[in-house]
Amino acid sequence: MIRVTLADDQSLVRAGFRALLDAQPDIEVAGEAADGEEALRMVRELRPDVVLMDIRMPALDGLAATRRITEDPGLKDVKVVMLTTFELDEYVFEAIRSGASGFLVKDTEPDELLRAVRAVVGGDALLSPGVTRRLIAEFAARSKEPATADALARLTEREREVMTLVGIGLSNEEIARRLVVSPLTAKTHVSRTMVKLGARDRAQLVVLAYESGLVRPGWLG
C-alpha cells in the first residue's frame, strides 16, 4: 500500500486529491497538512511514501519544507512531489535541486496524478518529462552553484552517455532504443550512475547532468 501525505493550504484541493487517491486499491492518504510546518511534523510522525507538497503555503513554504525533509537522513525513503499552479514555476527547479522527486501542475489529469505517485515510489521515470525538460532548460542556467565536471570522472563512458540521455528527458525505454539495449540494461546503467554520483533519485540526476555541463539548456534530444 502506497501511503501519501497531502500538504496544501486549500482544503478543497486536499479534498479532491484525497477522494481520488483513497479510491485506489493500492493507495491511501496518510494525513493532511495546511502549511509547511504541519507537513513537516506529519511526515516525521507518519513516514509516508510520498508527500504531495504545494509550493506556496503559510508558516513554512513547500520549498523550505522539502529541503528539511530531504536533508533528514531519517526520512530518506520519503519522496516529495511538488504541486504547482503553473508549469514553469520559478521555484520548481530549486525544489528539484533540493531533493524533490518531481512536480505536477494542480490541474493535471487524474490518471497522470496516479501514474506519478506510483512512478515516484518505484523510482522510475521523472514526472511529466516533457514539462520537466522545458523547466530544467529554462532554469538550469540560473543555478546558484558553479558547474563542475569533477563528479563525472568516476563514470564510465557508457554511464556518461546514459546520463546525457536522462538529462535531455528520455525514459528508460527511450534510452534502450537509442542505445540498442534492453530496458532492463538501460535501467541498470541509470541506477549505477545515480549510486556513483550520490543522486537521491532520477530528478537529481537530471539536475547534475546540467550542473556538470554534460547537458546544456536547449538540448532537448
UniProtKB/TrEMBL annotation:
Ranges for domain Response regulatory: 3-121
Source taxon at top rank: Bacteria
Keyword Amino-acid biosynthesis listed: no
HTH luxR-type domain ranges (all copies): 148-213
Record bears the keyword RNA-binding: no
Any Pfam family matching the protein: GerE
Alphabetized UniProt keyword annotations: DNA-binding, Phosphoprotein, Transcription, Transcription regulation
Coiled coil start-end: none
Modification sites for 4-aspartylphosphate: D54
GO biological process, any: phosphorelay signal transduction system
CDD domains: LuxR_C_like, REC_NarL-like
PROSITE patterns assigned: HTH_LUXR_2 (PS50043), RESPONSE_REGULATORY (PS50110)
MF terms (GO), sorted A to Z: DNA binding
PANTHER family listed in its UniProt record: TRANSCRIPTIONAL REGULATORY PROTEIN NARL-RELATED, TWO-COMPONENT RESPONSE REGULATOR
Protein name: DNA-binding response regulator
